[in-house]
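Ticket reopened. Same input as before:
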Amino acid sequence: MSTPLTHLLSGRRYPLALAAVAVALPLGLVAAVALGAVDLPAADVWQVIAAHLTNRESGVDAIDDEIIWGSRAPRAVLAIVAGAGLAVAGAVLQAVVRNPLADPYVLGVTSGASLAAVAAITLGGLAGIGVAGAAFAGACASLALVLLLGRRHGTLTATRLVLAGVALSYLLQGATSFLQLRARPDELSGLLFWLLGSVSGVGWGDLAVPCAVVACGTAWLLARGRRLNALLLGDETALTLGVPVHRFRLELLAVTALLTGAVIAVAGGVGFVGLVVPHAVRLLTGPDHRRTLPLVALTGGLFLLLADLAARTLMPPLELPLGVLTAAIGAPFFLWLLRRESAVL
Amino acid sequence: MRIVLDGVTVTVDETPIVSGVDIEVPPGLLVGLVGPNGSGKSTLLRAVYRALRPTAGAVRLDGADLRTLSVRESARRTAVVAQHSGDGFDFTALEIVATGRTPHRAAPAEDRRIVAEALERVGMTAQAGRLFSTLSGGERQRVLLARALAQQGRVLVLDEPTNHLDIGAQLDLLELVRDLRVTTLAALHDLNLAAAYCDLLHVVHQGRIAASGPPADVLQPDFLAEVFGVRAHLGSHPLTGRSHLSFAPLKNTGETLT
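Engineering reply: fixed in the latest deploy. New output:
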């Protein structure tokens, strides 16, 4: 048994892979918008999107236009943005806590968001900020709490952060379950859908905040690829390589919490993307963040786009929660990758 | 560049680990720290590369107090090879060496050239694309030395760099380090290696400097008996003719059994 001697995607193969995913993304977008309860021709989809982007009349039937531009397109865009944001946040958090099992949820951020959202649904709007606002506030509050619990002598260590996050998650999940028990039956399906994640029913107006946060957050993280690599080698090594470890880790936690919070505030707790996508990409490219992060963002977006397409089309007219799909696709894929790696060994 | 430790005291959880240590590393020399386990060698090195902050005294690089430099500025001056290197998280040798460029802002082409040169200098060019975790212990340490070279620090700090290496790799690595002619402070375990490669030695004992000077002056049998609790014999190396230490336990040597 020996490990492979070098990365699978090295040298010129990496830009090719990046280009392939970058091309697949708009194609996937058109497919996701064309397919559904009513299948629409791809040509119409192109035409409607192009027309709206250039402020012209599309000439396509008004109902089809509404399905394409008013309903399916924002939904598909949210799937891409949410997938990209969660995957990037997961990849970065795995470096921050140096734990391969970390995902955007390991620091209790989702549990906080879920509790706040469920509370907003069952107990009535929290001070008029709505479910999304409550979820975002919950995400921020739980991160602050984890940071407070995870520090000792003024420093944060990776292990303490994870332990504090896991402990807090259980506590918050318990509280969420308690609220679920007390929920009225008519609230329950909405609750469940939110807890498992969904990109349905969004309009363009809901997209502004997550799009801006994911774009800015990802750009900020991409510019810090070298320092992320150094962090992966350990706190002390990172320090000797000129990374102010403590401050950098706080910045990374804040940015990833912002990413995660902005995504789950509109899409709910979509699981597995943040865990599986970074690992799948890393198995191909190796751990260098300057190479992984762009591919992680694109692959995460594509993955969630296709997962949502499957969620809408697999069992019509029933729409499956996204979390069920991402787990059903993600877990076997993950196991396959692991087995495939050991086949190379 | 010159390293000066000026009355350095480091206290961890209110226990002083080293107290009032004065060390000077003149430019271009290889200065060794030797001493028993737990004597405070690593603590002193960690104060030099800022993993620990002295509770009293100061570490100066060419006269500048480390505390007045940003973390990035001191990383451009000081490169470190520590003893446990981990498994490298599936980075290739090339990628590990490239992390040495983290504190610098250079054009990517310039970075690539410096990294390639560093690999060449330690003789690891052929293994550049290999995963760090698949390299032997000696190759790993050479890659980490190449990273330190890519970092272009004018000061090198080595914390027991030859630990876990076979004897050939130990000699290789120290030959490489000596030939660099960079100001180097190194903690070493093996007294004979320290004597063979260091220009000056400091003996650390119970958190203080017990002796300093050229190896031949410092490594005297009576003194070693006191610090390390062993019997030492100073002879000459049968192959190189250099002075060579042999050791035996202080008591109950077994010689009287027969």
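The CA atoms of residues 236 and 245 of chain B lie 8 Å apart. Chain B has nine helices and twelve strands. Please confirm and we'll close it.
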